[in-house]
From TrEMBL:
Residues 323-390 form the 4Fe-4S ferredoxin-type domain. GO terms for biological process: lactate metabolic process. It comes from Virgisporangium ochraceum. Residues 83-306 form the LUD domain. InterPro entries: 4Fe4S_Fe-S-bd, 4Fe4S_Fe_S_CS, FTHF_cligase-like_sf, Helical_ferredxn, LUD_dom, LutB/LldF, LutB_C, NagB/RpiA_transferase-like. Transmembrane segments: none annotated. One of its GO terms (molecular function) is 4 iron, 4 sulfur cluster binding. Residues 406-480 form the Lactate utilization protein B C-terminal domain. Pfam families: Fer4_8 (PF13183), LUD_dom (PF02589), LutB_C (PF11870). The keyword Lyase does not apply. This is Iron-sulfur cluster-binding protein. Keywords: 4Fe-4S, Electron transport, Iron, Iron-sulfur, Metal-binding, Repeat, Transport.
């Protein structure tokens, strides 16, 4: 399939969908940080344990997964119809819908909406879509401050850092590091602040309370949008989202077009799948829903920005579009051996881990993220954990083939495979290659070859090679077979 070619992808250099380094280069840096690995290992083990416990309580968990996958598949097949219905319903309830083709358009729309209110500061609900497009940076350029109100996002913002996990953006920080950040960056932090989690949370709550009460504009994302009623939904654990969604006069929601579900019955399936897969809870402590504007109650001006930013290009790939089924639970990150050792920053995208390795290259075009589809061992744990059964290993292989197809020059691997195919077509050449390979025994030590000359050094730089056997299979066959007629 080549239908995805020519469709607009996310603009280069805007937002946070690709890094300045390739994944292998960034991963090497992360692997040299033992504290990072310790933090990640502890956090992911804890989340995995909680998730396994609550998932085990549900007798029809696999049926729920199948239902979620079926709903997503059917929704993507008629996405335009559902989006048009959503627009009608939001508009009928007093909201305004804006269509943003990419991050540049979305940032321009949100910035102009905030400017129209006269506000110089906005409070934000945790939103991966706004991180994807670099909204905070765009607002800052316009002289508008964006205050993250999710605790983990606040830690990242105050630390001048980047998120490293979909659910727990500050997973790479331990509580001692968080205390230091608060004392250094939070002007109203208590002088006697300790690294006790409760004290840290209280300090953040006091810091944010004044921002909530003074805010005139809030910016949110959305976990889901129900097309039949124009209802938006945000699920969260801290209550900060509820404050942002009810107190300010103006609410601006930026939502990827794939977050839509057709009906309330469909939403009920995902509200069972998401909390168990993400936080290991039976249900979210706070599930906030709103439909347009209600006079005298909550925001009196509501804007919904529907974001494409490469999603249409992804949808056009009949295999790759499955990545759009993601409900951002982060279950695949918590079981991934690669993520657990490298962390999220190595991926260079706001979407790290297995889902980021298949989503980010499609949003940007694989040429801008060519190494991410290789950031996996293809162990399959991500598929087993995914609540909507996204076949991430299959998508990784699919995208690897696209990376190879789009390269103008053959890769070293392709050249090596072509040479191997040429040798294997000739019995004489194959036998000679087998005899020559025995010379590699001189490079071995205790059954392993730890270093080979270029270009084979690319292999031994990250793994050992086995020492060739003393005799080839053909030699063994001639020695042990009574009448074998074979070339040595």
């Amino acid at each position: 399939m080549k239908t995805y070619l020519g469709l607009p992808t996310a603009p280069r250099g805007v937002g946070a969908l690709s890094g300045s380094q390739t994944f292998p280069a960034a991963a090497r840096v992360a692997l040299d940080n033992p504290q990072l690995r310790k933090n990640l290992g502890h956090a992911t083990r804890t989340i995995r344990g909680k998730r396994a416990e609550v998932v085990g309580e549900v007798p029809d968990w696999e049926e729920l997964r199948l239902a979620g996958a079926a709903i997503k598949r059917a929704t993507m097949a008629s996405l335009d119809v559902h989006l048009e219905r959503l627009e009608r319903e939001v508009t009928a309830r007093g909201g305004t819908v804006h269509w943003a083709t990419d991050s540049v358009a979305a940032n321009r729309i949100v910035t102009s909406l905030v400017r129209a209110t006269g506000a110089r500061e906005v409070v934000k609900v945790k939103s991966m879509a706004t991180q994807e497009i670099g909204l905070n940076e765009a607002l800052e350029e316009a002289g508008i401050s964006a205050v993250e109100t999710d605790l983990a996002e606040l830690i990242v913002q105050l630390g001048h850092d980047r998120p490293s996990h979909i659910l727990v953006p500050a997973i790479h920080r331990n509580r001692s590091e968080i205390k230091e950040i608060f004392q250094r960056e939070m002007g109203d932090a208590p002088a006697d602040l300790t690294d006790e989690p409760r004290r840290l949370a209280m300090a953040a709550r006091a810091h944010l309370r004044r921002r909530f009460l003074a805010a005139r504009v809030a910016v949110s994302g959305a976990n889901f949008a129900v097309a039949e009623t124009g209802t938006l939904a945000v699920v969260e654990s801290e209550g900060n989202g509820r404050m942002c969604l009810t107190l300010p006069r103006t609410l601006i929601t930026v939502m990827g077009i794939e977050k839509i579900v057709p009906t309330w019955d469909d939403l009920s399936v995902f509200l069972q799948l998401l909390p168990r897969s993400s936080t290991g809870e039976r249900m979210n402590p706070y599930t906030s829903m709103w439909s347009g504007v209600t006079p005298g109650d909550g925001p009196q001006e509501f804007h919904l920005v529907l974001l494409d930013n490469g999603r249409t290009a992804t949808l056009a790939d009949e295999v790759g579009r499955e990545a759009l089924h993601c409900i951002r639970c982060s279950a695949c990150l918590n079981v991934c051996p690669v993520y657990e050792r490298t962390g999220g920053h190595a991926y260079g995208s706001v979407y790290p881990g297995p889902i980021g390795a298949v989503l980010s290259p499609q949003l940007t075009g694989v040429a801008d993220n060519p190494t991410l589809p290789y950031a996996s061992s293809l162990c399959g744990a991500c598929f087993d954990a995914c609540p909507v059964r996204i076949d991430i290993p299959n998508l990784l292989v699919h995208l690897r083939s696209r990376v190879v197809e789009e390269k103008k020059l053959p890769t070293a691997e392709a050249v090596a495979m072509a040479a191997a195919g040429w040798v294997m077509k000739s019995p004489g050449l194959f036998g000679a290659a087998g005899r020559a390979a025995r010379g590699g025994r001189l490079l071995g030590r205790r059954g392993r070859i730890r270093a080979l000359p270029p270009p084979l050094s690319a292999w031994t730089a990250s793994r050992d090679a086995p020492v060739p056997p003393k005799e080839t299979f053909r030699q063994w066959w001639r020695r042990t077979s009574s009448g074998g007629d074979t070339d040595a």
